[in-house]
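A reminder from the course coordinator: this example appears on the midterm review sheet, so study it carefully.

Given structure:
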């Protein structure tokens, strides 16, 4: 790809979002840090993905992988995982951690759109979790994910719904009352309704197969999958129809 085209594709990035995660990256694998919620939801989302896509032996692309919490867990389940992110420091942390944990993954600093140009249709499974709400044009990332998956393959997204309850719980509750996340982690305007995400998916040829909420109980301090409650955090499972 020529440099101008690359710059255009890298246009779908908010530098302040990348900087935010780079500043926190050294604590990515500390289960009591700002990344505690990601550590706590990881077994739930890993099982959700594995049960539907069967990770062992699959070529998996993890878009917006950060420090590699999900990427590594999928590699431990036997997947051949490539993790991509535009943050340099989270990727350094991910590479260091994989050495400690003894699994092999390929981490690359590249955008989903660039990757889609390079390797269309090459992945059995594409995951893009907790990332869409941090980019200026999430529909473009959805299109890239759809290009990257092979016909018959699976794509998983997770993000946060946009409604007053999501504002109250994901921003006021999580950032200001319970301090589960640093203030400013999320911008309400970037939250995405399931209907919007479904529309973007269908426009690419992806079939939306299932969605499930991920709820937090502040009394027991536990998360669980809630198939009928997508009012705040939710996951979406899609598959690419064969032509
Ligand atoms: C909340 S973290 C989620 C990390 C990981 N997906 C997970 O769920 O464990 C969001 C990640 O998205 C990355 N990110 C933000 N904008 C991006 C972009 N335009 N392209 C690639 N990655 C991006 C950040 O660097 C950060 O690592």
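Designed residues:
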């Amino acid at each position: 790809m020529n440099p101008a085209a690359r710059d255009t594709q890298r246009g779908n990035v908010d530098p302040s979002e990348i900087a935010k995660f780079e500043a926190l990256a050294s604590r990515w694998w500390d289960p009591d840090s700002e990344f505690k919620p990601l550590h706590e939801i990881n077994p739930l989302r890993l099982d959700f993905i594995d049960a539907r896509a069967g990770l062992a032996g699959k070529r998996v692309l993890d878009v917006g992988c950060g420090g590699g919490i999900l990427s590594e867990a999928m590699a431990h389940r036997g997947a051949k995982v490539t993790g991509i992110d535009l943050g340099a420091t989270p990727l350094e942390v991910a590479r260091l951690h994989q050495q400690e944990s003894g699994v092999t993954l390929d981490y690359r600093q590249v955008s989903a759109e660039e990757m889609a140009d390079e390797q269309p249709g090459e992945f059995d499974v594409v995951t893009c979790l907790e990332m869409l709400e941090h980019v200026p044009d999430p529909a473009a990332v959805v299109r890239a994910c759809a290009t990257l998956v092979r016909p018959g393959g699976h794509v998983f997204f997770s993000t946060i719904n946009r409604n007053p309850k999501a504002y109250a719980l994901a921003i006021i509750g999580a950032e200001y009352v319970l301090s589960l996340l640093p203030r400013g982690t999320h911008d309400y305007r970037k939250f995405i309704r399931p209907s919007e995400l479904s529309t973007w998916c269908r426009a690419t040829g992806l079939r939306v197969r299932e969605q499930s909420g991920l709820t937090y109980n502040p009394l027991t301090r536990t998360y669980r999958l809630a198939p009928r409650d997508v009012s705040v955090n939710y996951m979406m499972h899609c598959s690419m129809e064969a032509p």
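Residues 49 and 167 are 27 Å apart (CA to CA). The chain has a mean pLDDT of 95.
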